[in-house]
Amino acid sequence: PMRNCLLLLGSCAVFFCLGSIISLGLFPAWQQRNCWRPASQAYLPHVELQQPLQPGPQSVKKQPRPSGDPLWSRVRIFCWVVTSPENHASKAYHVKSTWLSRCNGYTFMSTVSDPSLPSVALDVPEGRANLWKKTTAALSYLRRSGLLAKYDFFLKADDDTYVVIDNLRSLLADADPDEPLYSGRRFRPFVRQGYMSGGAGYVLSRAAVRKFVDLGLPSRDSACSGQFISEDVNLGSCMNMLGVRVLNSLDSLGRERFHPFQPEQHLPPGGIPPGNWLRRYNYYPLREGPECCSDTSISFHYVTPRQMYVLDFLIYSLKRPSREPHCSNRNSSMAPNSTHSTADRSDETVKLRWH
């Protein structure tokens, strides 16, 4: 009996070892064929969002006025979004499908004309090294196209920037578009009065655009010559030389409204690492956690196409019940409207709930 038990145990050990060897050899190949995914990828594998674009007639899109919005005609914002041909379908379309439709007018600044967006074909080379050329060409296009007579403020954004246009209108409600003004996420180095982050987006009054194109670009002053590597520093340098005033974008509690990263990087405590460049560049002391961001925030950068739709839904479509206690006998004529949408009332600031 003892001998039989030993033989049985030996056989089990052999089969166990063989099974382990086989599984170790086959598992990587099985995983590689997507038969298994880590928990974070188990349900939705990443699929790049693409959209076939249909041709249309215009290079600049003007939006119809929404009902019940007094700020729409009083604060006329033209949005120009910097993109490139390879991003027309994968990024630009999703910007157009979400926040861009709330601008009074808009276009995409590219190097290929695409009437379905629409986009303007700027005569400049593509690539990050040519962003300053693209910016100067875009602002020159705005100046010579007659748009300064139709709009008050001009917002520059990237094709991975999400913007809450209603909150931008509120920020600009008391600003004079015929005064040279410049606003956004203010950074400290290189320029005496600071400069605005390009990724978080910046806004120029029409007077600032006119002054930049008519006086800054023809100037021989080095401040407007594109001496820096970064496009946003170059623009800030020229704005400073031209005497364009910075419009403070902080809210009444000193919180930032324009954000150079995604919400999930700004909002958690410790989300910005100790050595991150933002701590050195930010014009004001950097706040962390929910105090990092105003509840009337305007922009976030590095937003993916999927996140564009998520933010759009959470800001404009998600509703909360009335805080008043429910009373079954309440007169319906006295009941508050708990289903009103901030999307239909952009004269009111859109509150973003961090807490």
From TrEMBL:
GO cellular component: membrane
Pathway: Protein modification; protein glycosylation
Top-level division of the source organism's lineage: Eukaryota
EC number: 2.4.1.122
Annotated Pfam families: Fringe
The keyword Transmembrane belongs to this UniProt entry's keyword annotation: yes
Topology class, membrane: Single-pass type II membrane protein
Entry keyword Transferase: yes
Molecular functions (GO terms): glycoprotein-N-acetylgalactosamine 3-beta-galactosyltransferase activity; nucleotide binding
Main enzyme class: transferase
Family: Belongs to the glycosyltransferase 31 family. Beta3-Gal-T subfamily.
Record protein name field: N-acetylgalactosaminide beta-1,3-galactosyltransferase
